[in-house]
Amino acid sequence: MMLTVKGEDRRMASAIGIYAILFVLTNFVNKYVLSVLEFKYPTVFQGWQTLVGFIVLRLLVITKHVPAMLTDTQRSDWVRWIPGMMLFAGSVYSGSKGLANLPVPVFFALQNLSSVIVCGVQMIITQTLIIYNRPLMYFELTSFFTYCMMMLTVISSVVIIHSDPQFNQQGYIWVGLHIVFTGGLQIYSKLSTGRLQASSLEKLYCNYIYCIILFAPSSYLIGDALEAASFPYLYFSKFWFGCILSGVFGVLLSLHSINLQEKESGPVNFAKVQGCSKILASFLSYLVFSDFYTANFAMWILINLLAGLSVEDSQLCTTDKEDSEDSSHYNGTGTFPPTSRHNVLFEDYIKDDKDYIDDFTGPDDL
Question: Rounded to whole angstroms, how far apart are CA atoms 253 and 257?
């Protein structure tokens, strides 16, 4: 028994280590191409990355390393997921523009605001259910400590912007859009849970297809394709290696993230792993890239990243292990086993006694 536990711990540690390495490599290669080489044509860059992701997924399907996709999914499911595709496209486009103009630690720190948005929406939905006397037994989703960490994340983000010695207005505007798109995508993904039969891998596959269809013509309409043709490093090997590695590392990171969330660890653990990976990448970026930091500026970035760990932990914490096992026995009749507890952004809710009225069907009732 002890050998089995140790084996599982080693496998988990290995999976977390691989994720951290892919996270650092993906963001560093993207930063190198976007900032060091100054390839600031997001429709071309993101179109290339999503094309590589699509090709890699197709090869994995052909070689049967992943199951066939889009076979048993109804067309109505993909119509419902179109807003998710649009939010994904907006997130990657604005994210590349933001990362190109801001230091890596600043980009990661401000990303934590998307977690604050998701937490805020959770609390609003919960309070709305209480105000309108919905048949929901309320429990405290967010502790006082997490409220404080949310406020600290917001305050530190504002201080970071005002204390940036290399303030770039365009970069902060784009990262603000990135925060909105990313938070919206997380919220919509949670709201669509239970309503869409598609797996996370199939959603990622559709996101790639949508981005290819969107960015290919947009690169010509916006003029990015024509400007990229005169890019000074276009025929340099370092540019091509950077582009190829950015696409490969990006899709591997996405696949490993899905695997880590659904198979290796729960959503709470993944949030912590992602937050720690941000801290690691931020520290290493100080050694790799030539950005200027003051002591006050660096201190507030660190405070933000540490506070963001608590915010992400709260907004993704839906169940503990026993509750997760209970929820897997949902019988499709609108009832759950006793003591099952779930996040209010999902379509299943709390039930703690037999007198509970179970006529609530989810976010569509709001």
Answer: 6
